[in-house]
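Hey,
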Amino acid sequence: MTAYNDATCGTSVTRTFRVEIKRNVDVLPDPVVSSYDDYWTGQHYYAETSSCDGGRSAKYYGRSFFTSHPTYEDTGNLTVTTC
């Protein structure tokens, strides 16, 4: 499975944009299965990550955010049997 997202900012500053694949579990926090950071000085960011998570059948979602900012964007849950 793969998660990806992009982001654009109005000013050119060094930032880290992260995308994660997380497994949705009953007890928080949800574990991060895979992540990738786009560390860049600019205005346009793109990050993508992939994982098989050991071939599990579970619910997963993607999350993306700038590490310097407290807000994030999640996808909905998808039930996936990986690889």
